[in-house]
Design brief:
This protein has about 130 residues and is mainly beta. Helix content is about 0%, strand content about 50%. The strands form two sheets. Strands 2, 4, 5, 6, 9, 10 and 11 form a seven-stranded mixed β-sheet that branches. It has a four-stranded antiparallel β-sheet with strand order 1-3-8-7, with no helix packed on it. The chain is globular and about 40 Å long.
């Protein structure tokens, strides 16, 4: 069983920065793509960013490009989401997720992922 634990959320003013972390239990972290999703109140969960198993390919939703950076440290079983120039519309619960198939390319759909963390709240005040 894989467990994912996010941390790093909090309250920040618009224009500020936060760095989210997600630590995965178990072995074989390095052969799976990892992703970040978010869910704002009253809205569906949406894709934010994803990273290939070796970290050489990253994908983002358009609204966070050039503001957010996803990265990973396979030696620490950890994936990160650096969030800069935060906006009130970034307010949401952020979830990390593990790709559902080993060696698969990172995807944008929730069904591309099988294990999910419990989420961490990010609140951006205006």
């Amino acid at each position: 069983q894989v467990q994912l634990v996010e941390s790093g959320g909090g309250l920040v003013q618009a224009g500020g920065s936060l760095r989210l972390s997600c630590v995965a239990s178990g072995r074989s972290f390095s052969i799976y793509a990892m992703g970040w999703f978010r869910q704002a109140p009253g809205k569906e969960r949406e894709f934010v960013a994803a990273i290939r198993r070796r970290g050489d390919i990253t994908i983002y939703t358009d609204s966070v490009k050039e503001r957010f950076t996803i990265s990973r440290d396979n030696a620490k079983n950890t994936v990160y989401l650096q969030m800069n120039s935060l906006k009130p519309e970034d307010t949401a619960v952020y979830y990390c997720a593990r790709g559902s198939a080993p060696f698969a390319e990172p995807g944008r759909r929730q069904l591309d992922y099988d294990y999910w963390g419990q989420g961490t709240q990010v609140t951006v005040s205006s």
